[in-house]
Amino acid sequence: QLQLQESGPGLVKPSETLSLTCTVSGGSISTSSYYWSWIRQPPGKGLEWIGSFYYSGSTYYNPSPKSRVTISVDTSKNQVSLKLSSVTAADTAVYYCARHTRQIDYWGQGTLVTVSS
Amino acid sequence: EIVMTQSPATLSVSPGERATLSCRASQSVSSNLAWYQQKPGQAPRLLIYGASSRATGIPARFSGSGSGTEFTLTISSLQSEDFAVYYCQQYNNWPLTFGGGTMVEIK
Predict the structure, then answer these.
(1) Tens of pLDDT along chain A (117 residues)?
(2) Contacts of B89 in chain A (CB under 8 A)
(3) What are the contacts of A48-52 at 24+ separation with CB within 8 A?
(4) Does the pLDDT at position B99 exceed 90?
(5) Of A48, A51, B11, B31, whose CB is crowded by the most CB atoms within 10 A?
(6) Shortest distance, CA A69 to any CA of chain B (angstroms)
């Protein structure tokens, strides 16, 4: 059974860089045809796709935070990483790691990141 | 960017009744639409993909329909565990976009 587990600091200061890691177990992130994505949800609000890494190496980003986002993978550790720079309070959210081909079929449990001084 | 609009924002339904949720896309997404259920403190769960195909393990009381720009999620007879927030999502174009959600609450 595929499992995704997000990890990283729960508190980040404004203007700093948010860094999260998603560790995948029960399957390889190198498996063909899968996207590995980050999605976030501000408290009490809806879902926002941040970006995706395709197994071939292509990346896709939401135009909104695009210039601040980097998604990468470490195949040796079976991990997917998210870096979001110059954060503000508006970046406070639960961040989910997810896997999909087209529809999103596997989600991590999510991790809350609060941006505050 | 394709904007997904869900209605109503909140739906009050009695257990055993039918619930009908709507999702509209700002341009055609063909049948590249999914529905997710989210309960408090949990990650979303895939219910429907391809607009009308149930995901593995999803009860038959959940059904999806539509194509192009208009989509519907129907829950034929609401059970206590179905009270949750439901999101639609298009995967026809980048960026992937979600609707704002419909909260199904107990009447």
Answers:
(1) 999 999 999 999 999 999 999 999 999 898 878 999 999 999 999 999 999 999 888 999 998 877 899 999 999 999 999 999 999 999 999 999 999 999 999 999 999 999 999
(2) 47, 103-104
(3) A48/A93, A48/B98, A49/B95, A49/B96, A49/B97, A49/B98, A50/A82, A50/A84, A50/A95, A51/A82, A52/A100, A52/B96
(4) yes
(5) A51
(6) 14
Which residues are B72's β-sheet partners?
Answer: B22, B65
In B, minimum Cα distance to A61 occurs at: B95
Distance from CA of A46 to the nearest CA of B (A): 5
Nearest residue in chain B measured CA to CA from A96? B43
Q: What is the CA radius of gyration of chain A?
A: 13
By Cβ distance, the residue of B43, B49, B96 closest to A49 is: B96
Give the Cα separation of A73 and A108 in Å (integer): 16
Geometric angle at alpha carbon A62, from B54 and A106, rounded to 5° = 30
Pick from B32, B96, B100: which is nearest to A46 by CB? B100
Q: Choose among A46, A63, A107: nearest Cβ to B98.
A: A46
